[in-house]
Amino acid sequence: MFTGIITGVGRIVAIHDLGRSLLHGKRLTIEAPAGYLDDVGLGDSIALNGACMTVTTFSPESRQFTIDISAESLDKTSGLNQQGTVNLEKAMRANDRLGGHIVSGHVDGVGQVSCFEQIGESWTLRILAPQTLAKYLAYKGSITVNGVSLTVNHVSDQATACEISINLIPHTLENTALGQLKTGSQVNLEIDTVARYVERMLSPALLAPQQDKT
Question: pTM surpassing 0.85?
C-alpha cells in the first residue's frame, strides 16, 4: 500500500531480458538517491512510476536495486521498458501519515499527455485517460499519475477518451520526475481506490432484488 507521495527520484540504468520470447519479462536495475536503500530489505515493495514492484537484490553501497517485471506488467504500464528517471515510493508503514491518498500500486491504464504548459508559477497538466476510466474520474477527486497523488481540477468527457486537467505546483515538479513530461508522453494512471468500491456497491448485479429460491 502507498500514498502517492514520492520519496525519491531514481533512474533505470540497466535492463536485462529474463528470456528470449515475448512471454518473458525483464530485470531492471535502478539507481536510487543516496541513503534511499538504508532501510530496504529483500522482498520489500517499492513503487516505480506508480507500479508496485518487489526488491530482488539491493546494494546500499552502489545505491542500486533490482526488480523483475513480468511481460504482463510491461504490457499494462509505461516507462518501465527503457532507461530513464522514475518516481520511487516505498510501501507505507502502519504508523505513517497518509499525505496523499490510498494507492495500491496497481496501474489501471495508460494515459497520454495532451498539454503541459506553465501558467503563472504553476503548471497545467492535461491527460487523455482511457474511456474505460472515465466513470472513476471526478472534479476534485484523486488520481495517481506515474505514482504521484494528484487532484483533478477539470474533467472533459470526449468521444474516445476522457481528458483531465491537473495543476502542478513547483514543489511537485522539483521533487518528482513529472517535470520531464511533454505533450505526447505516456503516463501510468491509477484511479482512487474508493471509486472501485462505489462502483461495485452500485453494480446492477448487487442492486437487483434477489429471487426467492424456496
Answer: yes
